[in-house]
Amino acid sequence: MTDVTLDMSEKSINGLDDEHIPSDEDIGSYDCITERRRSIEASASNKVMKWRFDMAEWEECDIILGVTVDDLYLDHIESITFKVDGKTKVLDRAEMSALCLEKSLWDNGVVKWKLPLRASKSPGNAVNSKMLDMEIRTLSGGVPVGFLKLHFMELRPFRFGGYLDGHIGSVSDGKSHDSQKRIIHFAVSGNGKYAATLSDAKAGLLLELWDLQGTTPAPAHQQFYAKVPVSIAGTLAQSLEDSYNVTVSWDASQIALTDVSNAYQTSDDDNQSLFAVYKYRIGLQTATSGSCSSAAISDPALSKDYQLLEGVDKFYGHGKFHVINPDDQNSENERFVACRGASVEVYEVNPAWKHILHIGLLQPCDTSAFCFSSARRLIRTLQGKHFAWSNMEDYAETVSVWDLETGRMTSLHWKKGYNPRLDGNDAIAFSRRGSVMAIGLQKVITTYCAKTGASRGSFRVPECCKTVVDIAFICGSTQMLVIGEKKTTTDEGGIGLILDVASMTVVSRFALAYLQKPEQTVMAFEDTLVFPLSRQPKELKTPSGMDFKVEIQRKGRSCVVVSESSHKELTLTLPSSSTGRDADEYRCAVFLPDRLRLVVISDALVTIWSLPETSDDDYTLLLAWNKLDSDDFWDTMCKSWYTCSHGQVNAIREAEGGENNQDKTSCCPRAERAFCREQSERFLSALDSLIHIFVKGDKTCEDVILRYVGSHINNYSDPENRSKSVLASICMSWNHNSRKGYEMFLKALLESPSGRWVPLLPRIECDHTKKRWTKRVWKEMGRIASLMVLSRINYEIEEGQPKNRTEEDRKSDPLYLLMEKTNGDKKAIGMAEVIVSYCVRQARIEKDPQFLSPVMQCLPQLWNKKQDFLGFASRTLRRLAFIPVKNRTLIMDHHTIIARSPDSRHLCDYVLQLERHKQVQCSKSGLIRTSLMSST
User: Fold this and answer.
1) According to the model, what pLDDT value does residue 928 have?
2) What's the predicted TM-score (pTM) here?
3) Strand residue runs (E) in 751-892
4) Per its UniProt record, what SUPFAM superfamilies does this chain match (predicted)?
5) Strand ranges (DSSP E) for 627-682?
6) Is 484 among the domain residues?
7) Which letter does DSSP use for residue 772 in this model?
8) 218 inside domain
């Protein structure tokens, strides 16, 4: 093997001097040298090839060589080696053959070689002069290798490096002389908390992440958390809006930038795709100025794991993050769906990127060119588990529906009346879960079952409408928004229609002052669908065909009546939530059709209900809140209500004061967080109102309230404060005037299937250990509960038994709270007896002594000489005397054997007598004969 080196150390390529530095304008066009110069021939007469260049202006850059290989004999070359910054890359004959076969970009056959080495700026070096070396190794034998012509060399800043500051303005005076940044695309995260914007900042594309959790729906510029500027490669052939898009994951932890600028040149390696995924680390919620709660977000970092997948780093096409099941809010099940025209690729993105499914869309005879509009519409209309594909190049008259989980085609539809001469005369949309597909063709809209392809209904737009421009499902997919073009040419406006999906009839119509069909004509963001409170419907037809009606009846005391036209058993009557002359008046009762919710507001109470979907279902109370003095959530100033796709209800309060005072948005938590630490006061204070409604309500109302309260009976919003619980709050709110209603409600709650209350193990300290009892110790004490009560009537606690209760345990014990109430009113005994009966009954049924813990803890208080509870104490002891104890050893330890069976070899059939360790003096202990009889 002979080494042939080419020497150009004292010459400059393209006639440029070593001192020449490309200008900023050259960098922006990605052509540092654009004019044609004399080429340099690398032949056997040259020894070494080197080129010195300066890196002072850039942090990192790619190196591109413009070469001509027509006179080079590749078969006689072993390899070509490039060196820069101490890094070496060797190109073998296979790689060189692939490079030489690339399409020529110049008219004389010049090919651009992008070297696989990247030059980086050296820290601490102000000059950063770099040297590029190239060495050609040939086969032995003296065979001629020809020559390689070098026409130019380019330095391109690495596109993912970005700029240090994306702010556009004058450095000298600090004032901006340019126009504002123009947003070319944006996307909202699945949880509705963040938004990403892609804007044209002239120096490059600026990618920013915004927090939407502030006090105003649109954040100010100062509230953005992170930005990633990306430089633009020269003059784009297409508009920026069609070339770059941004998509955000469910929790905004990942943001992807998609690139379709080079969609029609899929094999050109010269143009580097801008596709990239940036990762953010969303932290805990912290309070910041200008927002009630916001999340700390780390600086963006370019993700590395997706780059390991073949073809992703050079991806040209459309894509977005997608959750197949919209009701599943677990970000671990999120996918990234990408389409470049010939196929759909599905990637798993959490915890790492992984390719999981390939779906081939084209037939063998189809055109392989990238179909821009088809791929864009596929990603845009993707909903649930289905997507629609229409090959605009070969089969524009057909629409195929595919399953995203299995990768198979589920149905095929013919677009009847399709006219290929009319550009964009069809529209496609899927429902929220992807089960229903709608196709709008010219003047007809038809709905289909996405899984089977069966037709569900059709609608023809009015004659004044020329054609359907776009369609979208809204209001929880119960309605459809249709945008149509007017038939007359004198008016540029359009027509808007709202259709009922079940009956395909017009619900409402409106006029559009200006009609334009960009990439996203209709944006159905349910998070921002705002309805004035005065215009909320009082009637509602569900997708299952049920007709609901709600009205407030004000004859006498106001009440709310909810009825269904064909099922009388689904009538719900809500009486007033208080008693007396100052009874609460119902102010509002409306439906929120986008989530099939019913909101009922009175002077002091707001409730949110879920409607039954079928005649076999029941009403469900999702949330009941009492108004606090500091609340402005449901007062008369709230002008608008809306719900988001996650079930969150929001109200917008009118501004007060000057023009600078913006509207205030108040948020009601999700239904599953109705009883949480932050909102525990609102939840617990509403229990009194619910008890009053329960007492005066019908059977349907009673059952709904019992299920709602019972679902939270074992919940503790603050584990460190057990007093904030359902039963403790009810016992603390008890008063003499409402004693009968409280006792009726508590008895019905503890006897209902949903009212299974499990007492917490008490936190008790022992004298000899001063440590909290463990669960095992408490169960051991529970097994001998009846024996201990009967043998220690005077309650002088033996060593190792609990003596002192913590203050926290007392405030969380319903029986203790009721005993405290009896100091001023003996009627509280009725409530206490309900709880004791429940505890004894459950202990017998479930054979679990934990249910006896509240009773055992309050027995010393019952025998207080200062209180007249002896009758209640006697009844309690009688109930406890019949608690079964299965542990034979414990029974034998607390009894004396007075007789045995005739056959003493069998340890059974003993005659036992309860042990007494000392005589009880009735005069000192406060016991009476009745209580003593109950223990024998």
Assistant:
1) 46
2) 0.42
3) 764-765, 804-805
4) Tricorn protease domain 2
5) 638-643, 649-653, 664-668
6) no
7) B
8) yes
d(CA 529, CA 641): 9
Q: 649, 637 in Cβ contact below 8 A?
A: no
> Rounded to an integer, what distance in angstroms lies between the CA atom of residue 405 and that of residue 357?
8
100 φ/ψ angles, rounded to the nearest 5 degrees: -75, -20
Q: How confident is the model at residue 888 (pLDDT cuts 50, 70, 90)?
A: low
Return d(Cα 39, Cα 66) in angstroms, integer. 10
Residue 196 has pLDDT above 70, yes or no: yes
Together in a domain, 142 and 248: no
What is the arithmetic mean of pLDDT over 632-646?
Answer: 53
Q: Which helix (H) or strand (E) holds 471?
A: strand 465-474
C-alpha 419/C-alpha 397 separation (Å) is 8
**Of 316, 345, 365, which marks where a domain is finished?**
316
For residues 713 and 725, give the distance between their C-alpha atoms in angstroms, rounded to a whole number: 7
Token representation of residue 444: 């007809």
State the average pLDDT for the chain: 68
| Ranges assigned E (strand) in 7-76 | 40-42, 49-54, 60-68
Same domain, 151 and 184: no
- Residue range(s) defining the domain that contains residue 238: 159-170+179-316
pLDDT at 252 over 50: yes
Q: What is the CA radius of gyration of the chain?
A: 39
Q: How does strand 205-211 pair with strand 226-230?
A: antiparallel
Of 124, 157, 190, which residue sits at a domain end? 157
- Percent of the chain at pLDDT above 70? 56
Q: Are residues 618 and 579 in the same domain?
A: yes
Per-residue pLDDT tens digits for 751-765: 998 888 888 776 544
Q: How confident is the model at residue 118 (pLDDT cuts 50, 70, 90)?
A: confident
Q: Per-residue DSSP letters for 267-323?
A: T-TTSPP--EEEE--EEEEEEETTEEEEEEEPPPEE--GGGGSTTTTT--SEEEEE-
Closest CA to 314 of 263, 350, 374: 263
pLDDT tens-digit readout, 77-116: 777 888 887 788 887 777 777 666 554 444 456 777 777 7
CA atoms within 13 A on the CB side of 642: 17
140 and 258 in a common domain: no
Return d(Cα 176, Cα 169) in angstroms, integer. Answer: 4
pLDDT at 146: 74
- Using CB atoms within 10 Å of the CB of residue 736, give its burial: 0 to 12 exposed, 13 to 18 middle, 19+ buried: exposed
